[in-house]
Amino acid sequence: MRLLIFGATGSMGVLIAREYLWVYRSCTLVLYVRNRAKLPQDLVEDRNVIIIEGELDDMDNLSKAMEGVDAVITALGPTGRKGPFYPSGTPIASAYIRIMVTMKGHGVRRLIALTTPSVRDPEDHFSLPLVFLRKTFATIAPNAVKDIVAIGRVIRTQQEELDWTIFRLALHSSDSDPENCQVVAGYMGDGKTNAVSSRVGAATFIIQELDRREWIWKSPILS
Questions:
Q1: Which residues contact 44 (CB under 8 A, 6 or more apart)?
Q2: Which residues are in the NAD(P)-binding domain (predicted)?
Q3: What is the pTM of this model?
Q4: Which of 2, 26, 62, 84 has its CA 20 to 30 A from that of 46?
């Protein structure tokens, strides 16, 4: 398998990259990053890792990164750190459109995208903690939430052409040993999921989904 990851310099992106290299030891991992200096040294030095630097609007480099790829994982998304100063428009959702166009141009169907419960799902029910988090984030960073919602919308339009999965993660707990971490996938208010997720456990679950393919065309919450 040859996997392409976007957002590999972020905390989740790094963990997903490391988990992939652990599980698929002889396979190739392509990391598309803006600045390779932000990658941890173990990823830079791994012989199975190919690093391609580029912007998300650089179609030539996006196409280069997509060559021979079997699946794409995106850990892109607004963090809300800019709060009310987050740019208007939907820059990350627009980047997803370019990524998906490039995927289709190279015949790549499998997409796993990470986002938050700000993206709603018809299977969701009322959950006070998650609704509180959603409304709080929307108040602090309304433009970021608009971008997140747009990400879910543009991905779901590709159901006929891409085998996508949207994994929604809320609050992150401290990193833990994945062997002692049970990850639950479900929907808001289903009595199984909650507002907290382990980064390490989520990374393991996401890499397992590459082979399991249990959540195609679905957008569960991981907790």
A1: 36, 51
A2: 7-211
A3: 0.92
A4: 62
CA 220/CA 223 separation, integer angstroms: 10
Range of the domain at 115: 2-222
**For the domain that residue 52 is a member of, what is the CATH number?**
3.40.50.720
Give the whole-angstrom CA distance, residue 139 versus residue 105: 38
Bridge partners (DSSP) of residue 171 are: 196
* Contact predicate 219/165, CB 8 Å: yes
| 219, 167 contact by CB (below 8 A) | yes
Residue given tokens 């392509």 in the structure block: 30
What is the total count of domains within the chain? 1
Distance CA 27, CA 41 (A): 19
CA distance 9 to 37: 9
Under DSSP, the state recorded for 180 is G
Q: How confident is the model at residue 51 (pLDDT cuts 50, 70, 90)?
A: very high
Dihedral over Cα of 21, 25, 31, 37: its sign: positive
23 burial via Cβ count (<10 Å: 0-12, 13-18, 19+): middle
